Amino acid sequence: MSGEEQVADRSRRLSLLLVLPVALFLALAGAFFWGLMNTDDKLPSTMIGRAVPEFDLPPLEGRDNGLSSEDLRGEVSIVNVWASWCAPCRVEMPLLVELAEAGTVPIHGINYKDDPAAAERFLAELGDPYTRIGVDRSGRTSIDWGVYGLPETFVIDAEGRIAHKHVGAFDRRMLEEDILPVVRRLQAEDGA
Fold it and tell me: Contact 28/21 with Cβ under 8 angstroms?
């Protein structure tokens, strides 16, 4: 093999070594992107259909009532797990306030591992949609509910069973298409 052929051969190998990692990266990135775009955004929950876990949380400072499992029996309601340090909680709060003002369904909150003063400032700034708020300082109650990221929103039937779970902040479309249809169906069943 001549010197020119050896240089050309090394150049081809070097090009292949440079192109191969880039091609592999692009293939993996494409596969991940496809996976993200082609998933059902409803995460399964083993809690659906089960009674809410037994709990009794103290109230947020300055409030009379905390939240307990007993409070979630007798009417369809929503339980929203939130914290002042949670940026996505800030995103969905205007919709929760709007829903509370409409009086469609009682909304209760579980304040997760939060500073009480920060939680109060958060509600003062963005509005307070909650009928009751229980403070989960240790996070134990939220773990019992199967919470693994904030915010999480649960629809509870009149018998105190979890009927629906939404993970992450919801927007108007998700509220109208995923959460409220479950609320309305349960309210119709409860009224029958």
Answer: no
CA distance 99 to 109: 14
Give the position of tokens 């629809």: 155
For the chain, domain boundaries: 1-39, 56-191
Q: In sequence order, what DSSP letters do the residues of 107-122 get, joined into one string?
A: EEEEEES--HHHHHHH
Q: Would you tell me how many other CB atoms lie within 10 Å of the CB of residue 76?
A: 24
Please tell me the pTM assigned to this model: 0.78
Highest CATH level, class, for 56-191:
alpha beta
Which backbone phi and psi does 165 adopt, to 5 degrees? -135, 130
d(CA 15, CA 7): 12
DSSP secondary structure of 166-188: EES---HHHIIIIIHHHHHHHHH
* Residue 192 tokens, joined: 């029958």
Where do we find the tokens 């249809």?
181
- Please, are residues 113 and 139 in contact by the beta-carbon 8 Å criterion? yes
Residues 38-91: pLDDT tens digits?
444 455 568 899 999 999 999 999 899 999 999 999 999 999 999 999 999 999
